[in-house]
């Protein structure tokens, strides 16, 4: 079942403003402050072993008490502390940040890597028939995890359009200049039984294993699955060769169902407090845009 898109957009704004489930944007600075204070208070010998022990026994527990899951150990060619955390706001939507402290230099970096824009949050609510962020937690959290791998693939294949599959659908948007993903909308290519250009891309990753929410939030099982999947798919050619539209910038077009909703008799009003799921109106319900909306 679908939700009236006007209601979904109102609920998205309401949830992004008020939900206490995730760190608000203003708390990002607080996390950095906690890490910096621990580094400033450190009085031990600046050896690799003592610094890693400090990160593991002093910094990581403080972040864990905030509900985060920091990792202390090697990552890539470096080692130190690494943590992902999400922020939310009605202006920016959902954003995943990465914070890392490397040893022995104790260099602290914090940067955004993937953003799920408010419109994409609303479309995800609408097309999954739910009215609260908790109802799409599996979709948005899966997108954040998969984007960590797909960003690297996008750089290798020179994508200009970002695409991140989930269990139920697909987030689509821009690959910006620094390689980050800005996911502008959410699609369910097979929702009405008609093919779109995204159907083939989505089917490459479907069906996915039935991961639990704890597995999704941990991320390791999903990362291993996606890496193995990409390696297998690229044996027969680049994804950009199969789907050349990935090499073109994202284009936003109107969803024809929006017009059907707005003219349907008795259609729900765009109130943020609505609590009933709605079916799309019959008029126009068998139409589908072939771009992204």
Features:
eight-stranded mixed β-sheet, 2 domains, 293 residues, globular, 8 strands, 40% helix, single chain
Question: In a few lines, what is going on in this structure?
Answer:
Helix content is 40%, strand content 19%.
Care to describe what's here?
This protein has 293 residues and is of the alpha+beta class. Strands 1, 2, 3, 4, 5, 6, 7 and 8 form an 8-stranded mixed beta sheet that branches. Helix 1 crosses helix 4 and helix 2 runs antiparallel to helix 3. It has 10 helices and 8 strands. The chain has 2 domains: 162 residues, no CATH class; 93 residues, no CATH class.
* SSE run: HEHHEEEEHHEEEHHHHH
Q: Which quaternary structure do these chains form? A: single chain
For the record, give the distance between the C-alpha atoms at the N and C termini, rounded to a whole number: 18 Å
Strand proportion: 15-25%
Q: What's the count of strands?
A: 8
Compute the average pLDDT. Answer: 83
């Amino acid at each position: 079942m679908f939700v009236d898109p006007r209601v979904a957009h109102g609920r998205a704004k309401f949830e992004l403003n008020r939900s206490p489930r995730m760190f608000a944007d203003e708390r990002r600075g607080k996390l950095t402050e906690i890490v910096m204070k621990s580094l400033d208070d450190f009085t031990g010998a600046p050896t690799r072993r003592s610094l890693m022990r400090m990160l593991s026994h002093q910094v990581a527990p403080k972040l864990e008490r905030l509900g985060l899951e920091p990792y202390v150990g090697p990552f890539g060619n470096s080692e130190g502390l690494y943590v992902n955390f999400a922020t939310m706001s009605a202006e920016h939507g959902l954003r995943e940040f990465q914070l890392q402290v490397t040893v022995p230099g104790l260099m602290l970096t914090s940067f955004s890597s993937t953003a799920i824009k408010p419109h994409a949050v609303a479309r995800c609510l609408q097309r999954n028939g739910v009215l609260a962020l908790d109802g799409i937690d599996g979709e948005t959290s899966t997108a954040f995890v998969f984007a960590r791998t797909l960003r690297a693939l996008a750089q290798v294949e020179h994508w200009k359009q970002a695409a991140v599959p989930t269990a139920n659908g697909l987030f689509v948007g821009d690959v910006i200049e620094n390689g980050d993903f800005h996911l502008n909308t959410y699609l369910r290519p097979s929702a009405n039984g008609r093919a779109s250009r995204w159907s083939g891309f989505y089917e490459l990753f479907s069906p996915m294993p039935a991961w639990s929410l704890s597995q999704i939030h941990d991320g390791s099982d999903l990362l291993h699955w996606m890496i193995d999947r990409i390696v297998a798919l690229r044996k027969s050619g680049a994804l950009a060769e199969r789907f050349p539209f990935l090499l073109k910038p994202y284009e936003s077009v109107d969803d024809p169902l929006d017009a059907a909703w707005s003219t349907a008799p008795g259609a729900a009003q765009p109130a943020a407090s609505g609590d009933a799921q709605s079916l799309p109106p019959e008029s126009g319900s068998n139409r589908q845009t072939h771009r992204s909306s």
